[in-house]
Design a protein that fits this description.
Layout lengths: L1 H20 L17 E8 H5 L4 E7 L4 E14 L4 E16 H6 L4 E17 L3 E19 L4 E22 L2 E30 L2
Antiparallel strand pairs: 1-2, 1-8, 2-3, 3-4, 4-5, 5-6, 6-7, 7-8
Amino acid sequence: MKYILKETTWILCLSSLIFMFSGNSVSAQNIDKSESSIIQVAVKTNLAVDAAMIPNIGVELALRQQWSVNANWYFAWWQNNSRHRFWHFYGGEIETRKWLGKKAHSHILQGHHLGLYFLGGTYDFEWGHKGYMSDFSYSVGLSYGYAFNIARNLSLDFVLGVGYLGGNYRQYKPEAGKYCVLKDKNLNYFGPTKAEISLVWNIGDLFKK
């Protein structure tokens, strides 16, 4: 638990440093190619995962030539021992994106994009009678998304990813003050493994020419 809290604190500190040193805010207006930045910084949260009571934060770095690198961190640690209810999840994701089309050439982090992602984490979900626990599960896949502006520096990004899900999990049942394992299986699944409705805030330039 201490390790998890340390990791979460480190990520929040990193996000704060990005806010402090990011410089001027960047509007979603047309890019002046002669004054374009080498790297643009955006902070984001996946509203779909937030709705599942899993707080998360992400940082996306927009590089030149319509490429970007995206990293997200997820953490939830809700529990009610007296009623055998657990909602634990923590993990991370990293993704490389290629932005496509005319809009991507004139607007930062907007338009169509394709991506290659890797995500991994651990979880323990139980709701009174049966629980599902994984020491580590992961997914590798391809994503497609579309982002559009909703305010000066805010945008929405809709993403769907398809890939391979691997790892292991245990199905268990609380009984007589103990937890009895019912199943112990390996994950071997191919299909949708990523869904994202992200609120993105483009906060500024990290480096300039």
